[in-house]
């Protein structure tokens, strides 16, 4: 796979000195276009064996580009857990906004490559990890993040020789050690083979691997500057990379067949009397308190997503849930329209940044499902965007579950008549008027569209790892007990595994 990279590639100093000024000027010009357009961001993944010059490449690009819109994203010891959070959390957290460039050392490729080189990951598991990465990168590209993936090629023996030379002598230079876990020649050889597999499996039309011979510093740097220039030109070309959030026509419910609504199957007449409610709510709160204080929970985490009709009682239900939790170990995130900072990144970024450390709880009042609910119904995203979001959300929740988090999702359902009654009540109580907005009234007109969106959402994102719980919320007491009982059941089941 790397046959051409194994041949000798050299560029003499005079030739490099001649081409460098023009290359730098062109890079800066096209970077300024990227900054002005704010249409996409660029992640540059720099990989290669230790000793291939990753740090030198990084320093060269900092010399050539406008550093004010350039950021280094480093991930130390990616083979280990990052602050007790899911493996992908730190990568999401560091995504640059549109118009900027992130230089990444130690990307999502490191862990599977490291485990493959150490013999901890078999062939099938390695290929499966690469398929997950391909889907992740496809999502990033579709959401406005371009990728330039660079592998600095050196024969394992030569890379090891250079590494030793850099770390010995009177002046020991700082070295970017990406593969400190690998010690023997056999492991370094496995790493080289894993790199060839990765280049073959994960090279796509939108994010191919650029294999750069690293034997000669001048040739290496000139080549990387050239491929970076080509990538930036493609990103900033007229018409390239259409806007991330175009305004399409609103989604409409087809009229050819009667529209099925999963919400219509719920029995909204279910109720609890006050005495029974108080007894049961206290019992479920006690179960949740015990579960979240258990030593086993320190290796877990709890993520709750609340969706539902306007005025369905999400806030009051969350309030009862809060009373069962240690206030030092949980946080509620009310989700509104995205800020400018959030719009300048893929839509899942603002949720990834709030994923808590293990042993803690995050409660989302509205959630990442806005992409397939309000953004779909209001025509804020294209059918292609909300259509692919189902798979992206399933991957997101699957990664959380694999990292030990319990993901619990609720849809609180009420009838249109009950919603109207609650709206009128909010209008009549001064301290509740802030809960009612003109948008709430407007959303009532789109009730059938929301029912169709909810039905498809539940069908396509209720998984074994993160099932949906539909809550009959016409009676608030019944809804609160059902929610808390579901949380307690899921926690106890997870802690007993």
UniProtKB/TrEMBL annotation:
Limits of the Polyphosphate kinase-2-related domain: 22-235, 272-494
Instruction: Identify the Pfam families for this entry.
Output: PPK2 (PF03976)
Reactions accelerated catalytically: [phosphate](n) + ATP = [phosphate](n+1) + ADP
At the top level, the lineage of the source is Bacteria
Give the record's keywords alphabetically: ATP synthesis
**Keyword Nucleotide-binding found:** no
State whether keyword ATP-binding applies. Answer: no
Give the InterPro entries listed for this entry.
P-loop_NTPase, PolyP_AMP_Tfrase, PPK2-related
PANTHER family (UniProt xref) = POLYPHOSPHATE:AMP PHOSPHOTRANSFERASE (PTHR34383:SF3), POLYPHOSPHATE:AMP PHOSPHOTRANSFERASE-RELATED (PTHR34383)
Q: Which NCBIfam families match?
A: poly_P_AMP_trns
- The identity of this protein, by name, is Polyphosphate:AMP phosphotransferase
């Amino acid at each position: 796979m790397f046959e051409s990279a194994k041949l000798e590639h050299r560029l003499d100093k005079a030739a490099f000195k001649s081409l460098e000024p023009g290359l730098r000027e062109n890079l800066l010009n096209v970077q300024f276009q990227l900054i002005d357009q704010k249409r996409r961001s660029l992640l540059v993944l720099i990989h290669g064996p230790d000793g291939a010059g990753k740090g030198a490449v990084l320093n060269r690009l900092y010399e050539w580009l406008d550093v004010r819109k350039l950021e280094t994203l480093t991930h130390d010891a990616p083979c280990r857990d990052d602050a007790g959070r899911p493996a992908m959390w730190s990568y999401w957290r560091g995504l640059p906004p549109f118009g900027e460039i992130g230089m990444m050392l130690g990307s999502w490729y490191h862990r599977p490559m490291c485990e493959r080189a150490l013999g901890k990951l078999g062939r099938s598991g390695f290929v499966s990890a690469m398929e997950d990465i391909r889907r992740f990168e496809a999502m990033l590209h579709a959401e406005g993040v371009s990728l330039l993936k660079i592998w600095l090629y050196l024969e394992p023996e030569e890379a090891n020789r250079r590494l030793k030379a850099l770390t010995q002598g009177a002046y020991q230079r700082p070295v970017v050690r990406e593969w400190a876990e690998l010690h023997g020649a056999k492991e370094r050889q496995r790493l080289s083979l894993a790199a060839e597999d990765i280049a073959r499996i994960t090279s796509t039309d939108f994010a191919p691997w650029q294999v750069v011979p690293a034997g000669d510093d001048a040739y290496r740097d000139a080549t990387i500057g050239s491929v970076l220039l080509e990538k930036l030109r493609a990103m900033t070309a007229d018409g390239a990379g259409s806007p991330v959030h175009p305004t399409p026509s609103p989604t409409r419910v087809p009229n050819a067949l009667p529209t099925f609504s999963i919400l219509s199957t719920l029995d909204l007449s279910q109720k609890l009397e006050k005495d029974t409610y108080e007894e049961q709510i206290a019992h479920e709160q006690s179960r949740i308190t015990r579960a979240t204080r258990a030593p086993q929970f320190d290796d877990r985490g709890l993520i709750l997503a609340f969706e539902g009709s306007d005025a369905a009682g999400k806030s009051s239900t969350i309030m009862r849930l809060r009373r069962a939790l240690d206030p030092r170990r949980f946080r509620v995130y009310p989700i509104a329209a995205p800020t400018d900072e959030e719009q300048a990144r893929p839509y899942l970024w603002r949720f990834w940044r709030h994923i808590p450390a293990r042993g803690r709880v995050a409660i989302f009042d509205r959630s990442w499902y806005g992409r397939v609910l309000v953004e779909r119904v209001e025509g804020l995203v294209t059918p292609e965007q909300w259509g692919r979001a189902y798979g992206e959300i399933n991957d997101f929740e699957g990664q959380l579950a694999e990292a030990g988090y319990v993901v619990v999702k609720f849809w609180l359902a009420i009838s249109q008549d009950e919603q109207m009654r609650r709206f009128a009540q909010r209008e009549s109580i001064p301290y509740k008027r802030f809960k009612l907005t003109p948008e709430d009234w407007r959303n009532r007109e789109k009730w059938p569209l929301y029912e169709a969106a909810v039905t498809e959402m539940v069908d396509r994102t209720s998984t074994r790892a993160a099932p949906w719980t539909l809550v009959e919320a016409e009676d608030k007491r019944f809804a609160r007990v059902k929610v808390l009982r579901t949380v307690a059941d899921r926690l106890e089941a997870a802690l007993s595994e």
